[in-house]
Each structure stands twice: as structure tokens, then as C-alpha cells.
Amino acid sequence: GKGGIGKSTTVSNIASALAEDGANVLVVGCDPKSDCTRNLRGDIVMPTVSRVLSEKTSAPLELGEFVYGKEIKAEDIVQEGFNGISCIEVGGPEPGVGCAGRGVSLAIDLIHRIVVDELAPDVILYDILGDIVCGGFAMP
């Protein structure tokens, strides 16, 4: 979807309503502006999965190497937001600067591998740009 039409606001509101109703909610932001996780965390920008992972090693590694070869814990990439909502920010490249699809796909793989089992969310909501492509997500 086009930028500025309310995707992040909608995800934030749905997450908040579900959490208020007692659901264990996980929100995964996949936007370079981090709008959704900022909404849920009082406008505080949280580090992206890629940044957290790159800080865990002195050598530059690709996200795929972390997904398949390193030990990462949920607490390394999850931060609490409004009403106990678990937030993860995948991020992405700035518009026009590169392909986000591969990084987003690998980060979601990592999230499912280490976070979902540990947190056991009732609901997972993804705030994803409408134009992520290059092996990631695409709309026909």
C-alpha cells in the first residue's frame, strides 16, 4: 500500500485493542521509518533486528548468517510496548536505496525460529510496506 494511508496506525490500533482484550500480541515492524513500533513505544525508536545482530559480532555478517549460524535470544530483539505488546523492528532500506525483500524474509525466519516459541503470542501482526519485493513480498 501507498505510504501515509494508515497501515502502521491500523496495525497499532488492532494490536492495542487485542492486548486490551487480554491477547498476547507480537508486532513486527518492517518499515524503515519504524512507525508502528514507535507508535506502540511512545515515539521511542527501537533498534532494528539487523543492527542488534551486527552489534553482537565484530565482523560484518549478512542477516542470513545470523539466522542460520548464531545464537540469538528473544530478549535481544524484543522490546515491550503499550499494554504489554511485544515489539520487534525489522526495518528496511530507505526508499530508493535497495531491496528490502531478502532482509525482511530472513528476519521473519529468525523471529519465527527464536521468538514465537519463547513468547507464544496469540496473535502476530506485521506492519509491512506494500512494495517490498526482490524475493520478499509482492502484490500482483
UniProtKB/TrEMBL annotation:
One Pfam assignment: Fer4_NifH
Xref: PANTHER family: LIGHT-INDEPENDENT PROTOCHLOROPHYLLIDE REDUCTASE IRON-SULFUR ATP-BINDING PROTEIN
UniProt keyword annotations, A-Z: ATP-binding, Iron, Iron-sulfur, Metal-binding, Nucleotide-binding
GO MF annotation list: ATP binding; iron-sulfur cluster binding; metal ion binding; oxidoreductase activity
Cofactor: [4Fe-4S] cluster
PROSITE patterns cross-referenced by the UniProt entry: NIFH_FRXC_1 (PS00746), NIFH_FRXC_3 (PS51026)
Chain's gene name: nifH
InterPro entries: NifH/chlL_CS, NifH/frxC, P-loop_NTPase
Protein name: NifH
UniProt similarity note: Belongs to the NifH/BchL/ChlL family.
